[in-house]
């Protein structure tokens, strides 16, 4: 979550978000052991009448979305992934993890069956962007939540 101190900065960031953001990294705790240690998911995302996002089977049908992932740790029932967004679409990570057969833990809407965390297994880890008035590159990073790491130990 991000807050701007001044309204004009908030507006500048909102109006140019895709251009201002230089880095977005998440960690996702997903169901199952992801077969490929790293990969890229690319699809066209659309929203259903029930407001659920999904990957369209047709090229150019929706908004193009690209997600890169790599496995940080895995066991048979769970994998901890680092997820880098090339694009930033609504529920992009959740849809793409479902697409590869490994829904985000706790994400019933997108196919998850486990509730090992008691919350959604998705955490924004890094956000970097260009400040709209100073031009300075700002980068904020958080630790991987302990609950994600502990879930892999059980």
CATH fold descriptor: Pseudouridine synthase
The CATH H-level superfamily is Pseudouridine synthase
> What is the CATH class?
Alpha Beta
The number of distinct helices, counting runs of at least 4 residues, comes to 4
| Alpha carbon gap, first and last residue | 30 Å
Low-confidence stretches: none
Shape: globular
Description:
This protein is of the alpha+beta class. The chain has a single domain, classed as Pseudouridine synthase. Helices cover 19% and strands 38% of the residues. The protein is built from four helices and seven strands, in the order ααβββββαββα. A seven-stranded antiparallel sheet has the order 3-2-4-5-1-6-7. A hairpin with a 3-residue loop joins strand 4 and strand 5. It is globular.
Short synopsis of the structure:
By secondary structure, the protein is an alpha+beta fold. The chain is built from four helices and seven strands.
């Amino acid at each position: 979550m991000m807050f701007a101190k001044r309204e004009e900065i908030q507006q500048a960031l909102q109006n140019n978000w895709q251009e201002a953001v230089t880095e977005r990294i998440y960690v996702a705790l997903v169901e199952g052991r992801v077969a490929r240690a790293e990969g890229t998911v690319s699809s066209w995302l659309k929203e259903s009448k029930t407001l659920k996002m999904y990957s369209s089977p047709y090229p150019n049908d929706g908004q193009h979305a690209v997600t890169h992932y790599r496995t940080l740790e895995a066991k048979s029932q769970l994998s901890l992934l680092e997820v880098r967004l090339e694009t930033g679409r609504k529920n992009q990570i959740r849809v793409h993890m479902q697409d590869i057969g490994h829904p985000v833990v706790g994400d019933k809407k997108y196919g998850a069956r486990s509730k090992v965390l008691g919350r959604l297994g998705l955490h924004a880890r890094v956000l970097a962007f260009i400040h709209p008035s100073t031009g300075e590159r700002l980068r904020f990073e958080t630790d991987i939540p302990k609950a994600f790491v502990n879930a892999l130990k059980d």
